[in-house]
Amino acid sequence: MKSKILKQDKLLRLVAARLFSLFVLITIMQSALGATLLIEHFDEKVPDYSPIGNAPGWRVLVVKGGVVFDCTTNLPGFIYDYPALSSSYGGARSGPGQWSVGFLTLIGNVVSNALIWVEAPTNFQGHAITGFSYYSRNDSAASSTRIVVRANGRWYASTTSVHDSGVPADWVLNTLRFTTSPGAWQELNTNNLTLGSKLSQPLPTNNISAVGFYCLTAGRSRMRLDEFRVVTGSVWDQDFSVGSWIWAEQRMDRVTCRLWKLIEIPSGVRVKRAQLRMTAHDTFRAFLDGTEFGRGSDWGRLTEYDLTRVLSPGRHVLAVEAFNEYEWAGLVAGLVVELSDGKVMKFPSDDTWRIVPEDSKGWLTADLPENNWPAATLLFPFRDAPGIPDSPKVDSSLPLQPIVIQFWQTGWFQVTLLSFCGVVVGICLRLLAKVTMQSKEQQVLQRERARIARDIHDDLGAVVTQLVLQGETAQSELPGESEARAKFKRISDTGRRLVQSINEVVWMVNSQRDSLQDFENYVCRYAENFLRASSIRCRLDVDGEIPEAAFDLARRRSLFLAIKEALNNAAKHSGATEVLLKLQIEKDDVKVTVEDNGRGFDPAARDRTRNGLSNMAQRMTEVGGKCQIVSRPGAGCRVELSAKVSHLSDHHSSWWRLRDHSSSTLGKKEIQP
Fold this sequence. Notes:
- The protein has 673 residues and is α+β, with helices and mostly antiparallel strands.
- The chain has five domains: 1-33; 37-232, Jelly Rolls, CATH 2.60.120; 245-408, Jelly Rolls, CATH 2.60.120.260; 439-511; 514-673, Histidine kinase-like ATPase, C-terminal domain (Heat Shock Protein 90).
- The chain is built from seven helices and 34 strands.
- Strands 2, 3, 8, 10, 11, 12, 14, 15 and 16 form a nine-stranded antiparallel beta sheet that branches. Strands 5-6-17-9-13 form a five-stranded antiparallel beta sheet, with no helix packed on it. A five-stranded antiparallel beta sheet has the order 22-21-24-19-27, with no helix packed on it.
- The chain is rod-shaped and about 205 Å long.
């Protein structure tokens, strides 16, 4: 009996020892290798989410005891409760710019870390990745997840890890901005699921074929992941209010890229605020509806423009002409428009912008793109540009003011002004043609006057002179008291007067004598010769400087005949011993005074049957001149004559003055002595 009890006691001790050893072994293994990993389905998804269709499932690699196990389809014994991994993957875009994957369910045990991923369309069918989002619920705040991507066949994990609150009942939405910066990624070794060194070059993005999570567990906590989304397209930088860098598909040095974007503001609202931020590598010129409003050359700084007063409801064209000097090229921009109804419109730089070919005309104001304008190529998010500062500066410019069109800038005014100028030019050309024709006529007239003067002098003057000489010869052959001799003497005297008259006519007709200086010389010489035969003394008072002004035939002839009449009256009727001839120039007038110291007369009591004085007044009136006679008995007589000189101040400066001179000359074609 005692022996039996001892055997039972040893058996109990052995069972207890083995149980204790098993407990210690389990504790050591759990402490060394980690705890449970749980990726399970959660029904409380966001309202607008629903998995779409069937697609390749999730794959899972876990580490246990330093060994990597593929748990995708065949679960090992240490993972329990479910014989397989349940998954669904929405392989199409579930919203604007989003790729979505469904939920995962996996229950395991004693797992330290895991790689969970899903195959995706190569490079997401040409759409650039801009961000990730997913829900997580972990039992421990020490557990963490990282985003992983497979690019060009190699795995990379983000350096940013996500830790939950550790409250199992809380689901947390995690959002991460995709960046290619080298410091944001490190290599992932899939042989042992360990992290490597950080990248020294930007993350390659030309062939991303898989996305997922890298999970690190703590203790016996469970990890739950759901609704993983990959956001593609342009990313809106919330801090700087710009989109992604964009450019043409081909990027070369020293090339200008023209980018076009249509902005539509709904009708019935008012723009409360419109803010545009922009920069380019290397320089840019910005246009709104064809009007340039900004330039920039520092690609590391954003320039902010206030477009509030120039944006109105309707269509607007935002166009940019950017130039790349060397290395990489890109444009980044963002327009935020706040409307009066509370809505906010955002226009980032993305693939909705168009690239305008160089041969396109009118692209700055085109309200619709041409078919040959390709979409812009997305490059990378704003702060992923190589060499851009961590906190780029923003330079503000003065608010843009609407272009105020003055009335003289309107089309109707310019057309009217152009028409008026055309009429004025036509009139000027017509007048110029008339003046040219009149100038030619004047030249012809002057040549004809010169010919007439020569003919009179050479023909008529020679004949009369010959008659005078013959009369004097006949007179010398006759006795002194002969009546015939007296007649020949009268004939000779008449002939001399006739020769003098012919000389006067020749002087007046000759166009080479149409000057004020020549008139002054001739009148003074005539007065001296005329009064020399009498006992009357001749005094001359003439201005020292007589200008080289034109003195046309009509005025010159009338004034000379009036002076001749005044001298003749003084010699015949005044009984004077002295006659003063005074010639002055005042402005555009030539004034001649003939004054004697004779007996004088009463102008009111003069003989009306005689025409001398009235002829003088009439001649001067005909040419726009004046004749004034001042006399009284015993006080001599003064005759004041004045006539206009054609544009004395500047008679050679303007064509219309030649026209006036020509008209006045042509008006007196008949030469009447």
